[in-house]
Design a protein that fits this description.
Layout: H1 13-28, H2 30-38, H3 51-63, E1 71-75, H4 82-92, E2 100-104, H5 105-112, H6 116-127, E3 138-143, H7 151-161, E4 165-171, H8 174-178, H9 181-186, E5 188-191, H10 197-205, H11 213-222, H12 227-236, H13 238-245, H14 251-260, H15 271-293, H16 298-313, E6 316-317, H17 319-323, H18 332-344, E7 348-351, E8 366-370, H19 373-383, H20 389-409, E9 415-418, E10 428-432, E11 435-441, H21 449-455, E12 462-469, E13 474-476, E14 481-485, H22 486-489
Length: about 500
């Protein structure tokens, strides 16, 4: 006796032949297709994202039998560069083309109307041997696997059938939540964030980071004993920091915050086209990614752009006031579900008020930042706004600093990023264990007033406070505070 888990009818011979021909074409022309991701218009090899080296090391260790890792799932914000990174990994993996398959699952499943399992069954026949009988390594590069609802079970099955297949899979952030405990024990989940400033410059201008500087800056800014210690450490890094900026146009900072966090935007020269592409990216999140996570009514789906626009206007969001707005006409429970889903797609990041817990209800509003400032920038520029330019730039700066804090601290054990919801409170409170660092961001000569107000609270056990702005590197030992130029912070 056995259980039937797939009620699909057997493939017709003609359909199977079409898939066979399709896979052969994918293999034969893969090198040509990957060139656009690997080389620039002048035929020069593009510099790669920071995550690339670690992923290549997994491949090399697998080929040399030095590691048991043979399944990696990359997830993250749409537009963060997962497909490009996957293509670069494909090109770097030096095995016979027949032994590595790059497959856009959304395209293949959509064209042929079959499952990923049926496609890989045909690939086994193309190999001329079953996965169990493989004697040499085979690599599967599977892009957008969430388009097959049974991707997790299928890949788990292949993983268990053989130790000769290495699986790379990409998809939405929901993958990490949907995967079963069995999958979690087998796969490594790698989150790909929007680009840092140094990654942006590397991709755009082919300029590499200063080796070791990022880690040294992180330690100085967040792991110092007090403000004086942070200042001393940063002074030692002053020459290396200034040297990086010698041949880097300061205007790139503004471009980076407006759209440079998304890799696919870097090559576009027309800014109007940039924002149009970002708008289309968000539309795909709403129309494609969200329905894969939650079954909202079509009326609710149609209101999500208005919710995002409301977030672009203000980051501290009162659910009751927003749900009561006449133009939204959306209940608070549905709005809560919409925001939670937008978090799962990595579109926004919720920052709780200090003193609350993620499982507790708080009367103070949460702060919602865009995981890429390019999204907020698109709303300001494409739709228009009534804010002054300085306020607009200030919100993009807060999203940018939030992106760095998200990458450095979000999800780490015994660590949190919150904010002071009181009037005049600081933008961020970074907690590591029982100790905290208070952080305020802004343009111009930003004062320490908000930082010191937050540090004075009994519930805030701050090692020191900092202001990230255009102010020079300075330390106020009496207040245990330090001003850190944005030019330092961006190189972390």
């Amino acid at each position: 006796m056995y259980t039937v888990i797939n009620q699909r009818k057997p493939m017709k011979i003609e359909q199977k032949q079409k898939i066979f021909d399709f896979l052969q074409d994918q293999i034969v022309n893969a090198d040509f297709r990957m060139k656009a991701y690997v080389f620039d218009e002048d035929g020069k090899r593009r510099l790669v994202r920071n995550a690339f080296a670690n992923l290549v090391a997994h491949v090399q260790n697998f080929l040399e039998n030095k590691s048991s890792v043979r399944w990696i799932t990359m997830y993250g914000l749409r537009g963060a560069g997962k497909t490009t990174l996957l293509a670069q990994l494909y090109e770097q993996t030096k095995v016979e083309n027949k032994k590595k398959l790059f497959l856009s699952v959304d395209q293949a499943v959509g064209i042929f109307g079959v499952s990923l399992k049926e496609i890989l069954d045909v690939y086994e026949e193309l190999l001329g041997v079953s996965f169990e009988q493989l004697t040499e390594p085979v690599f599967l590069f599977l892009d957008e696997v969430q388009y097959d609802e049974k991707w997790a079970l299928l890949l788990k099955t292949i993983y268990d059938r053989t130790n000769k297949v290495f699986i790379f899979a990409t998809g939405s952030s929901a993958l990490s939540l949907q995967a079963s405990a069995d999958v979690a024990r087998r796969a490594i989940f790698e989150k790909l964030y929007p680009m840092s400033f140094t990654e942006y410059i590397k991709v755009k201008d082919q300029k590499s980071e200063t080796e070791g500087l990022s880690k040294s800056l992180q330690d100085a800014i967040f792991n110092a004993k007090d403000a004086k210690d942070a200042f001393i450490q940063l002074k030692k890094l002053e020459k290396a920091t200034q040297q990086y900026w010698v041949d880097t146009d300061p205007k790139e900072v503004d471009r980076y915050m407006r759209y440079g966090t998304l890799p696919f935007m870097v090559a576009l020269k027309n800014e109007a086209l940039v924002y149009d592409q970002i708008k289309k990216t968000l539309e795909r999140v709403i129309s494609i990614d969200i329905p894969h996570i939650t079954q909202f009514a079509s009326e609710t789906i149609s209101k999500i752009p208005m919710v995002l626009y409301a977030l672009a206007e203000t980051d501290q969001l009162s659910l009751s006031s927003l749900s009561d707005k006449g133009d939204l006409d959306i209940s608070r429970p549905v709005l809560t579900s919409v925001l939670e889903t937008l978090e799962k797609t990595e579109t926004i990041w919720r920052i709780y008020p200090h003193g609350s817990h993620v499982t507790q209800t708080t009367r103070q509003p949460s702060k919602y930042l865009f995981t890429s400032p390019a999204f907020r920038s698109m709303y300001f520029n494409f739709i228009g706004n009534t804010r002054t330019r300085e306020n607009y730039k200030g919100k993009l700066l807060e999203d940018t600093i939030g992106l760095y804090l998200n990458r450095l601290f979000n999800g780490k054990p015994d660590t949190s990023v919150t904010y002071d919801s009181a009037a005049g409170g600081a933008d961020f409170i970074v907690r590591q264990g029982k100790e905290m660092v208070v952080l305020e961001v802004g343009y111009g000569e930003k004062s320490f007033k908000q930082v010191t107000a937050t540090m004075a609270k009994d519930s805030v056990h701050a090692r020191y406070g900092m202001v990230v702005s255009e102010r020079p590197l300075e330390c106020d030992e009496t207040k245990n505070t330090i001003s850190i130029p944005l030019t330092y912070f961006l190189l972390m």
